[in-house]
Amino acid sequence: MQLQSTTKQKGDAAEDRALQHLQAQGLQLVQRNYRTPGRGGGEIDLIVRDPDGTLVFVEVRQRGRQDHGGALASITPTKQRRIVFAARHFLLKLRQIPPCRFDIVAVEGEDLHWFKAAFNA
């Protein structure tokens, strides 16, 4: 009997794969699964630093199929606002704010697509 993997396990596997890809491109992990305190806040899957010093907030989306536009289309304006909210909360902890950008890594089946500067704050 084969066990079905949970949505969380699939999401964690997609994040692992995205992180490996980004690290292979020279980015360094700052924090994983950053969450704001309280209800209704936001979460950031990966926070990484680009070799040029840019702090990159990465949303990882995984979809098995292309229905409804696939992984990239699942980043709604509401989801973007929550990511930006969490990023601002994270930046409050820093003494100096570096250049920042918001990337998306879309994992669809065996394909991985990295969209740099996918949206703005």
Architecture overview:
With 121 residues, this protein is an alpha+beta fold. It is built from three helices and five strands; from the N terminus they run αβββααββ. A five-stranded mixed β-sheet has the order 1-2-3-4-5, with helices on both faces. A hairpin with a 7-residue loop joins β1 and β2.
Report the CATH architecture: 3-Layer(aba) Sandwich
Q: What is the overall number of helices? A: 3
Q: Which ranges are low-confidence, i.e. pLDDT below 50, for 5 or more consecutive residues?
A: none
Based on helices, strands and strand pairing, what is the structural class?
Answer: alpha+beta
The main sheet orders its strands as: 1-2-3-4-5
Rg, nearest Å: 15 Å
N-to-C order of helices and strands: HEEEHHEE
As a percent range, the share of helical residues equals 25-40%
What is the CATH class? Answer: Alpha Beta
How does the major sheet shape up? 5 strands, mixed
Cα shape:
globular
Helix-strand layout with pairing:
Blueprint: H1 7-24, E1 28-35, E2 43-49, E3 55-63, H2 70-73, H3 77-91, E4 100-108, E5 111-119
Parallel strand pairs: 3-4
Antiparallel strand pairs: 1-2, 2-3, 4-5
Pfam families: UPF0102
GO molecular function: nucleic acid binding
Organism: Limnohabitans curvus
